[in-house]
Structure formats: structure tokens, C-alpha cells
């Protein structure tokens, strides 16, 4: 190549199709993720509003007990929920993976339904069951049995444990299947009992799985908005305070809400960074030839293990069952009457069209965007590996650390003025869904691309096909299963989004989640249950397709 043509070739390479895709991906992430986060940080230090100096809002937060106590409260319930989820999730995963327990199919279905059901309506189900005038608590009171209150910190922790232990359950189950049977056999041959072998040999190899599950529980609990606002009463946590400061009926304080959002984001981001460090530190590179086998157990041991797992998953599934059953019962506000009726569905039929149409439209649009962008980004991450694409992958994964309520506040702050005036529109909701759930499509496509050789792509290129034509006609068909898997996961996780939607929606862009939340707050549980049952069905059907017809395991949820 001559000195004259070399710069032209380098320029053509720089302006080629995939470099431009990489540049476009960075632009999307910068606009929809980096800019909103930067806008929140900038607003928190802006000194606007009541703040006399850039650090005034932070000084106010850490000097006023009303504010800093919410941070302490958030750490308290999140830490206790994490400990509880690990304590109940690890044994459940071990028994389900290693023992031939009864009801295994029920357990798998229950974990999936618990994982994807809208947590805020499940929280209100606990009020219906165990509230001050709850069905179960009232019945037990007749026998002189007084249960602990479902309200406050203890109630939030209890519900968090049952909502989020599937993180630990699914990841530990996957981790157990990645351990070779020879490891346990060696421990047994040296005289170790089952318990000692687990503690000394298997448990250390599960550290990445347990730490990942634990920190995902912590992040989910720390950023949860729906459960604390329903069960917290006077026990306030940081996400609830962000919401109340931003949408206060008497005039919100956006600078203080931005400050709270920065603190919330800092904690979740540090937790995920800690998880990555722990996973890297304790990762083991052993190859699994023969996964851990399911061993026959004495009848008593099998019965106890089955009872434990079935009780745990049944308890976690109880709120979902309460929602579905309640939707067919006569209701007078929060009071349910044991008479079957379809009145709740007739009542919502008059007002269902708009929130249902919005939900389907916004979710479908975001899912389609995620599938298209996620597949293209996955290609450059896998096929054009380097520092730049590695940075792109890391930045996209950062969206896991951004709580929905923080992203909602950031998008309002970033796009509240011309020329990008999007606040209150359907567009901003779709974009929020898209950037929050993009990692699902990216990771699913990356996993499939790593299993596919590039011989067919090279042959297409050698025959004269351009990169776009090769990608569309060769690569996409080969990884279509991964693309569909990512799309189904995106749909199921997007359709129940609440916290970001509450910040971004206007009256004409309300979704099913917002309608459910509104009815729950107004104590119209029968109507909320009817909405919730429809939403649970819309959430679960794509996952049923994913597991039944595509042969995926439940671990893809995390």
C-alpha cells in the first residue's frame, strides 16, 4: 500500500459501517444515560432553589435527621433483606438442585412468577392478609393470636426477603450446576460428611454466585419504591423521599430531589462495583465435565427438604394468588367479601383501554428498540473486541445500577427545556424503558454470538457482501434464538416498570402499573387486583414461551 493510499484506507476503516455503529451506540448511551445522570449531579451542586451554595443540599441532608435517617433506614432494611434472602435462598437452591424433592415443577414456576410479578401490588396483598384488619390477622385474633405488624421496617424486610430471594436461588442453582461432581467425590472419599463437604469444598466455589445474588438483592431492595411506600407508614426510605420531594403537591424541590438521587445512585453503583470485584476475586476456572448429581436421600430427609422449599415458594407465591383470587371477589374499597363476581373486571373495562394500550405500545416499542440496538451492540462487543468496545459494554451495564426513580428524575431534568422538550410525552417513557432494559438484549445476543463461529460471516464477506448485508442475512438468522430470548426478557421486565413511569407519565401516558398503584393508594383493591391479574398474565406469558418452547432455564432472568 502506497503512502498516498494508506490515509484513505484508514479513513474508510474509521468511517466504516461497524465503527459508525459503535459511535452511534456511544451517542445513545451518552444521551439517554450519561446526560441524565450528569444532569442530576449538576443540579445537586447547582445552588439553585433554596440552596445558598453548591453544597447546601448535601449539608441539609446530613444535618437534618429527617433526611439522613432515610439513608440509614434504607441501609437497614436492605442489609437485613439481603441477609434473609441468602439464608433462605441458598438452602432452597441446594435442596432443589441436589435432592429429588416433591413438587419440583411447582417450585420452578413459583420462583419465576414471584420474580416477575409487580412487587407493589404484592405488597398490598400482604396488607389484605396480615394488615390491622387483614383476613388472616383477624381470624387469628379470634383465637388470641397476635402477629407482628406487617407495617414498618419489619414488614418491609419480610416482604423484601420473599420478593428477592429468587435472585439468590437462581444464581446459586446455576452455580451448583457448574461444579464438577469429582470435587464432591474427593471430599467424600476423604471422609467428609455432606454438610462438611458443602461448607469446605462447595461453598467456597459458590462465593461468586452468592455474592452476585446478595448484591442484586441489596440493590433491588435499596432502590425499591413500591413496597416501602405501601408498608412503610412513618418509616421512610430514600426512594420514597426522592419521589415525595420531586412531586410534592405543594411544590417540589428538584435540587434536593437531585441530591437524594445522587446519593441513591452512589450506593447502588458502589454495590455493583463491589459485586464485580468479589466475583473476579473468587472466580474459579475449573471445567465442568460431570455436573453435581442429584443424590437419593432417606425419606425423612427428602420430606423435610421438600417441605422447606414448598413452604418458602408457596409463601412467596401467596401475594400473587391473593391478587388473582381477589380480582374475582366482591370488594368495597379495601374490604373483600367472599362472594365471586366479575364486577371488578366490568369496572375496569370502561377505563382499561388507555392504560392497556399505553402499556402495550410503550413496552413493544422499547422491546423492539432494545432488540435492534442490543443485537448491533452485541456484535461490536464480541466481533470487534477492544478497549473501545469494552468500555461501551461496561457503560451499558451501568444502567443496572441506575434505579428507575433516579433515571426518571434525570430524564426530566435533562429533557425539560427546548430543543429537547420531552417531559410528559410518550417518547420519554419509551426511551426510559429502552435504556433501562437494553442490557437484557445485549447480554442475550452476546451469549449467543460467543457460541457461533464466524466462518459463515467471513465467507459472506469474501463473496463481496458488505457488513450490513452480512449482518442481516447471515449473522442475525444464526443468533435469532438469542435475539428472541432477549426480547422476551425485555418485555417481561419492562411491562411492570413503575418507579420511572410515575415520574415521567402525564395523565394521557399512564400505564397499567400506574393505574394499579393509583387504585392501591386509593384503597380500591378489587379494581387494583383486576388490573394486576391482567398485568401478571401479560408478564408471564412471554416467559412461558421462553421456558417451554425455547428450552431456557430460569437463570436467564438474572
Written account of the structure:
The protein has helices at residues 5-14, 17-44, 56-63, 65-98, 104-116, 119-130, 135-141, 152-177, 181-189, 194-205, 207-223, 226-231, 238-246, 254-282, 299-326, 343-349, 353-383, 387-397, 404-414, 426-449, 455-462, 467-478, 480-494, 499-504, 512-521, 525-549; strands at residues 329-332, 335-340, 416-417, 420-421. With 558 residues, it is an all-alpha fold. The protein has a domain at 64-180 and 206-326: MetI-like (MetI-like fold), CATH 1.10.3720.10. The strands form two sheets. The protein has a two-stranded antiparallel sheet. Strand 3 and strand 4 (420-421) form a beta hairpin. Helix 4 packs parallel to helix 8 and helix 9 packs antiparallel against helix 10 (194-205). The radius of gyration is 25 Å and the shape is globular. The two termini are 49 Å apart. The mean pLDDT is 84.
